[in-house]
Design brief:
mainly alpha
Length: about 190
């Protein structure tokens, strides 16, 4: 049992030593990778090439090369028309690109979308105004119709009230007559 424990202990100590060596190697390689002045001294041509490549990318070289290749294959784009616009509008148009046909298409699409939206807004405004005027008129008309429909004419109301009272009086007198043994058929006719 003691030998197994000793063997496990030796393996742990060996793993610890290997980890220490790996950490030393990692630290040394990190320091070498970060030591830029030493790299420049060892190979100045490579350092200049790396700096030139970084500057090329930062200054937009790939985009310029792509544009030059596109112009070589497809030809020069149509130039923008001479500008008679204010500076801000001219600057905004130039930001859309240098192909006049594409800029014209973008402007036409944007204007069509604006016109459609403005038309919907005007329709909404018309509806709002119509409802603003029509709603009070409709409310007043519906109130007047309800008053007319449910109005009570005094003479017809009084006539109906008299008929109801007469009918109830006949029913009550008929109930009394039925209890006294007389026929109530004539009182139930109306």
């Amino acid at each position: 049992m003691a030998t197994e424990t000793d063997a496990a202990r030796d393996r742990v100590l060996a793993a610890r030593a290997a980890l220490g060596e790996e950490l030393e190697t990692l630290e040394a390689s990190a320091r070498v990778a970060v030591d830029i002045p030493a790299k420049i001294k060892r190979s100045p041509a490579k350092a200049a090439a790396v700096a030139g490549g970084a500057a090329f990318v930062v200054l937009g070289g790939p985009k310029r090369l792509f544009r030059a290749g596109k112009h070589a294959v497809f030809g020069q784009p149509a130039p923008l028309p001479p500008s008679m616009l204010p500076e801000q509008i001219d600057r905004a148009l130039r930001e859309l690109g240098d192909d006049g046909d594409k800029v014209r298409g973008a402007l036409e699409r944007d204007f069509a979308a604006y016109a459609k939206k403005a038309s919907r807004d005007r329709a909404g405004l018309r509806t709002l105004l119509l409802l603003g005027v029509a709603r009070p008129m409709l409310a007043a008309g519906s109130r007047a119709a309800a008053k007319w429909l449910f109005r009570t004419e005094d003479e017809s109301f009084e006539g109906r009230l008299a008929e109801v009272r007469d009918r109830l009086k006949r029913q009550n007198s008929g109930d009394h007559a039925a209890s006294s043994g007389t026929s109530t058929e004539d009182s139930l006719g109306s």
